[in-house]
Amino acid sequence: MSVDTTEIILVNESDEEVGSGGKLWVHQQGLLHRAFSVLVFNNNNELLIHQRAINKYHSGGLWTNTCCGHPNVAEEIKAAAERRLGEEMGFTCQLDYLFKFQYKTSFENNLTENEIDHVFTGIYNHDFEVNPAEVLAYKWVSVPEIIDEVAEKPDNYTFWFKEILRSEAFLEFVALNHILL
């Protein structure tokens, strides 16, 4: 589906569905909508991040979490995250819900992300082949390494990824899973 015809879910501040709209129109209007972000780690406690394809409708060329997107109308959020992981990164894995947060940011092309973002985590240790229409590059990085990189060059990363990395829920997750060791 193209960005122009995809219908995504509009929500209120309580993350309750209130309607739907075309993906591009929703971002042009800055309407609050449901989204997800996926963080996949390997057994070396490294996080898989990717550089968004240059031609993405916003944030092209920026580095971000493993995968992100929007559930389609009538699509359960976890199923959408699993679907999109396969579409973008070329693999699927068991995903576990971590937390959700709300953010709003505008882009130079007059689009606005105004999302309630549901964050999922997973583990994957096999080969995969990314979708070049979605992913320019990818790499596995340690959490301390990515936190340092984002601090040094914040303009190279998506807004929502930076919000995830500084969230209390993410920091608790890495501590509980001994990822910083």
Question: What can you tell me about this protein's structure?
Answer:
The protein has one domain (7-176): Alpha-Beta Complex (Nucleoside Triphosphate Pyrophosphohydrolase). Helices cover 26% and strands 35% of the residues. The protein has helices spanning 23-29, 77-89, 143-152, 159-166, 168-176, and strands spanning 7-11, 17-22, 33-41, 46-52, 63-64, 67-69, 95-106, 112-123, 135-142. The strands form 3 sheets. A 4-stranded mixed β-sheet has the order 6-3-8-7, with helices on both faces. The chain has a 3-stranded antiparallel β-sheet with strand order 5-4-9. A two-stranded antiparallel ribbon has the order 1-2. It is globular. The chain starts with 6 loop residues before the first strand and ends in a 5-residue tail after the last helix. Pathway: Isoprenoid biosynthesis; dimethylallyl diphosphate biosynthesis; dimethylallyl diphosphate from isopentenyl diphosphate: step 1/1. Its EC number is 5.3.3.2. Keywords: Cytoplasm, Isomerase, Isoprene biosynthesis, Magnesium, Manganese, Metal-binding.
Short description, anyone?
The chain has 181 residues and is α+β, with helices and mostly antiparallel strands.
How is this fold's topology laid out?
Elements: E1 7-11, E2 17-22, H1 23-29, E3 33-41, E4 46-52, E5 63-64, E6 67-69, H2 77-89, E7 95-106, E8 112-123, E9 135-142, H3 143-152, H4 159-166, H5 168-176
Parallel strand pairs: 3-8
Antiparallel strand pairs: 1-2, 3-6, 4-5, 4-9, 7-8
Widest β-sheet, arrangement of strands: 6-3-8-7
Major β-sheet profile: 4 strands, mixed
What is the average per-residue confidence, as pLDDT, rounded to a whole number? 93
Structural class: alpha+beta
How many alpha or pi helices?
5
Total discrete domains: 1
